[in-house]
TrEMBL record:
This is 2-oxoglutarate dehydrogenase E1 component. GO terms for biological process: glycolytic process; tricarboxylic acid cycle. GO terms for molecular function: oxoglutarate dehydrogenase (succinyl-transferring) activity; thiamine pyrophosphate binding. It comes from Halomonas urumqiensis. Its cofactor is thiamine diphosphate. Belongs to the alpha-ketoglutarate dehydrogenase family.
């Protein structure tokens, strides 16, 4: 056994030959205390053979230890000064610990602050004395272990100098929190092999200076032409422009075909002009206040998106800068959604061809919760995009002139990224060569490992939060330093001149050439393609210019409907289905055969099947969508034998479109923003987000406010996203009743979105189909039911699906005699069934009940058509379950009055309300209170 162990040891180069003395010392220390040796060695020793049932450090006479003792005995017979050897062995271990300390904590000593204001953190781990080493040991040679020095042994002074150059100069690496050894070793090699300072060619460095000149030149030009005007300039962070240029060019070399970029205000105009190729003359028009869109409200210039194509070593690349409001980080998950849609379109499952780049501010990165949510989704099945390159433009002062102690509780603004073990590269924004290096490593890491990576571009903000702000009032020390501090371009130009790369005249010529191009209105972005390859674009042309229409032919031929219904109910014999799910599918087969009324789950699922059959991909995500929060859907069947999942809708036909269905992680804001981004990039798809309960969308209100409700009018950005929000008063309390219908209706204007409250399975079938079959692309908000999912009266027939369409108003089906009707009750949603039951129980044939299934755009003509035959009506009542100050009443009553005024007696002024009294909470928390309120509002609808 001893011989086998020694062969095992000697097969590894780092424990052979000259290293054996060092390894023995490490092993002896390990036997005494495993925690005293570096992690890598502890793991190595743990894996060595040992007596069965014993831990290695518990075995005083193990064969391995015996062998080391024997080696030591033999050496003592041939060598002298064993005590000296022991001291050297101990010091060798300490040197390895010192190397590890630099890897862990060198970033805290690094020179990453251009202003030199960063308070140095005492790092005792980096002192020789901390490791029982001294200056007397500097000339002693030690093994370098895993440190990429290029030598197996080197004097301690050379090792320390190399460590200092690698980890404590212009780059501060945080990589040791990464668990994966391959990733960690790869990163160590990339930085240590070149001491974090590779040698770049003269041409590369000239190009970097040219991009720095462009970044500074645009800011200087705008500052002189529009002094004091808001532009959120990039001054102090100019290195961001060569960084982006390198990402794009290097990404193109990897075969990336599309890049989607998200960023907030600072530097956005510079990126638009110098990287994406927006014509400077267009930007000047915006500064001059000229209207640049034909319809809608428009938005300020530093919120606008843009797209273009640039040429790279790997061919043409399409760049898309996402539109972004002042909610800063909310654009991050939108970008991820847009990227995932593009990857799905290209069948790019690894994320090779489409790259997300998210650019952050330091304060927002640390402070906004959606950052955490976006990181959390990065490796999940529903939302992963193959890794994102994150860039933090770190002004070190936040969005106002706040103190770092007020901005976060962590050492760095980037510490949040450690939650997903993303490597973090802090880099001094004044060292353009270092910026270029970390940019290359970051992209290479993303392409190699398909995981997120963070570049912390530590810079400063030469002006205030905006150009009208005077920051020295609150940050006198910082801004006194900034006033005297030369720009990154100036520093880099001086360096290149000193090193003989360029002359002073060359530098001046760069400045003048850029200024001349800018003033002439020429494009100033490098490699801009003037006649782009349009196949790289998302083609929205078929969906443009369509006016609102509620009609669409959504019926499906009966034979095709039956065929698809049968197919979606097929489950292979190898799948052992849970007992209750067996019953659901048995019932669906009966529904398909016409032996049972169709319920909600069957009709909804059949809508997806028909859309897939017609070539439309379907994507459905949310918390519990596979089963459905209320167990109505069961689109995903779980094998009881092995836990595997089977999705019948993914097996409808060979070559069918994608049917994507995933339970989301417990997020609303990031997930809804992701689905918005996806839907704006996939016009042919049905994209659905379902809330677990409708009121949970509260956690994503900003997405509705900034994107879903207003994206078209601000940015001319179309979106066909569907939101399914379970809504209905079943006595489940304030947080599980209302999807806050009133909020959506309050935001409705200019036909910006659809708000619907379907009450039958046929209605949801046709509504979902209408959303895709029409070329019109508007967000759809569905107040979907809970109790109606299994309500005995909420059923439909196959004929309803085959021959019908979505009806915005459902007429009364009660076989009433029109001339006897004296009152019309208008309602929406589940309350209809309560009203219909009360009417039947009380024999009230003088009241008609009409359902308004689409509350916006309000169907005035359809409502008038449904009500006009009741010629003896004397009053009209709107009945809702929601309190008076909520629901549809305040936002929709003027529409109802307008229709009532069209009747012969002009009844608009007599419109009455029946519902719960005004309330600060959406619903009662006690079942007894709920029941009494529900009884009262139903009676009021008839007797008010």
């Amino acid at each position: 056994m001893q011989q086998g162990i020694m062969e095992l040891m000697w097969r590894s180069s780092h424990v052979s030959g000259a290293n054996v003395h060092y390894v023995e010392a490490l092993y002896e220390q390990y036997l005494d205390n495993p925690d005293a040796v570096p992690d890598e060695w502890r793991k190595y020793f743990d894996q060595l053979p040992r007596p069965e049932g014993s831990a290695s450090h518990d075995v005083p006479l193990s064969p391995i230890r015996d062998q080391f003792y024997e080696l030591g005995r033999q050496r003592r017979t041939t060598q002298v000064a064993s005590a000296t050897d022991s001291d050297e062995s101990k010091k060798q271990v300490k040197v390895l610990q010192l190397i590890n300390a630099y890897r862990f904590r060198g970033h805290q000593k690094a020179n990453i602050d251009p202003l030199g204001l960063r308070s140095p953190t005492p790092v005792p781990d980096l002192d020789l004395s901390f490791h029982q080493l001294s200056k007397a040991d500097l000339d002693t040679e030690f093994q370098t272990g895993s440190f990429f020095l290029g030598l197996d042994k080197a004097p301690l002074k050379d090792i320390v100098e190399a460590l200092d150059q690698t980890y404590c100069r212009s780059v501060g690496c945080e990589i040791m929190h990464i668990v994966d050894t391959e990733e960690k070793r790869w990163l160590q090699q990339r930085f240590e092999s070149v001491r974090s300072a590779p040698t770049f060619s003269h041409d590369v460095r000239k190009h970097v200076l040219e991009r720095l000149t462009a970044a500074e030149g645009l800011e200087n030009y705008l500052a002189s032409k529009y002094p004091g005007t808001k532009r959120f300039g990039l001054e102090g962070g100019e290195a961001f422009i060569p960084m982006m240029d390198e990402l794009i060019q290097r990404g193109g070399g990897y075969g990336v075909k599309e890049m989607v970029i998200g960023m907030a205000h600072r530097g956005r105009l510079n990126l638009l002009v110098n990287i994406l190729g927006k014509n400077p003359s267009e930007l000047i028009d915006e500064f001059d206040g000229k209207k640049v869109i034909e319809r809608g409200s428009g938005d300020v210039k530093y919120h606008q998106g843009f797209s273009s194509n640039v040429m790279t070593p790997g061919g043409e690349v399409h760049l898309a800068l996402a539109f972004n409001p002042s909610h800063l980080e909310i654009v991050s998950p939108v970008v991820e959604g847009s990227v995932r849609a593009r990857q799905d379109r290209r069948d790019d499952h690894e994320g090779i061809k489409v790259l997300p780049i998210n650019i952050h501010g330091d304060a927002a990165f640390a402070g906004q919760g959606v950052v955490m949510e976006t990181f959390q989704m990065s490796q999940t099945r529903a939302y992963k995009t193959g890794g994102t390159v994150h860039i933090v433009i770190n002004n070190q002062v936040g969005f106002t002139t706040s103190h770092p102690l007020d901005a976060r509780s962590t050492e760095y603004c980037t510490d949040i990224a450690k939650m997903v073990q993303a490597p973090i590269f802090h880099v001094n924004g004044d060292d353009a060569d270092a910026v270029l290096h970390v940019t290359q490593v970051a992209l290479d890491y993303r392409q190699q490992f398909k995981r997120d990576v963070v570049i912390d571009l530590v810079c400063y903000r030469r002006r205030g939060h905006n150009e009208a702000d005077e920051p020295s009032g609150t940050q006198p020390m910082m801004y006194s330093k900034i006033k005297e501090h030369p720009s990154a371009r100036t520093l880099y130009a001086q360096r290149l001149v000193e090193q003989g790369v360029l002359s002073e005249d060359d530098v001046k010529a760069m400045v003048e050439t850029y200024r001349d191009d800018l003033m002439a209105g020429n494009h100033v972005a490098n490699a801009l393609v003037q006649q782009p390859n349009t196949s790289l674009f998302v083609d929205w042309r078929p969906y443009l210019g369509h006016e609102w229409t509620g009609a669409a032919d959504t019926g499906v031929a009966m034979k095709r409907l039956q065929r698809l219904a049968a197919k979606m109910c097929e489950i292979p014999d190898r799948i052992e289905v849970q007992r209750q799910v067996v019953k659901i599918y048995e019932d669906r087969r009966k529904m398909q055969a016409g032996g049972l009324g169709l319920n909600w789950g069957f009709a909804e699922t059949l809508a997806y099947a028909t859309l897939l059959d017609e070539g439309h991909p379907v994507r459905l995500t949310g918390q519990d969508v596979g089963r459905g929060t209320f167990s109505h859907r069961h689109a995903v069947v779980h094998n009881q034998k092995d836990g595997s999942a089977y999705v019948p809708l993914q097996h409808m036909a060979d070559g069918q479109p994608r049917f994507t269905i995933h339970d989301s992680f417990l997020s609303e804001e990031a997930v809804l923003a992701f689905e918005y981004g996806y839907s704006t990039t996939a016009p042919n798809d049905l994209v659905i987000w379902e809330a677990q309960f409708g009121d949970f969308f509260n956690g994503a209100q900003v997405v509705v406010d900034q994107f879903i409700s207003s994206g078209e009018t601000k940015w001319e950005r179309l979106c066909g996203l569907t939101m399914l929000l379970p809504h209905g008063y079943e006595g489940q309390g304030p947080e599980h009743s209302s999807a806050r219908l009133e909020r959506f209706l309050q935001m409705c204007a200019e036909h910006n979105m659809q708000v619907c409250v379907p009450t039958t399975p046929a209605q949801i079938f046709h509504l979902l189909r209408r959303q895709v079959i029409r070329k019109l692309r508007k967000p759809l908000v569905v107040m979907s039911p809970k109790s109606l999912l299994r309500h005995k009266d909420a059923t439909s027939t196959l004929d309803d699906l085959s021959e019908g369409s979505f009806e915005m108003v459902l007429a009364d089906k009660g076989n009433l005699e029109a001339t006897k009707v004296e009152r019309v009750v208008l309602c929406a949603g589940k309350v209809y069934y309560d009203l219909a039951n009360w009417r039947a129980e009380n024999g009230r044939d003088d009241v008609a009940i009409l359902r308004i299934e689409q509350l916006y755009p309000f169907p005035k003509e359809e409502l008038l058509e449904a009500i006009k035959d009741y010629t003896n009506v004397t009053d009209i009542v709107w009945c809702q379950e929601e309190p008076l100050n909520q629901g549809a009443w305040y936002s929709s009553q003027h529409h109802m009055r307008a229709v009532a005024d069209m009747l012969k007696d002009g009844l608009g002024g007599k419109l009455k309300f029946a519902g719960r009294p005004a309330s600060a909470a959406p619903a009662a928390g006690y079942m007894s209170v709920h029941t009494e309120q529900q009884r009262q509002l139903v009676e009021d609808a008839f007797n008010l």
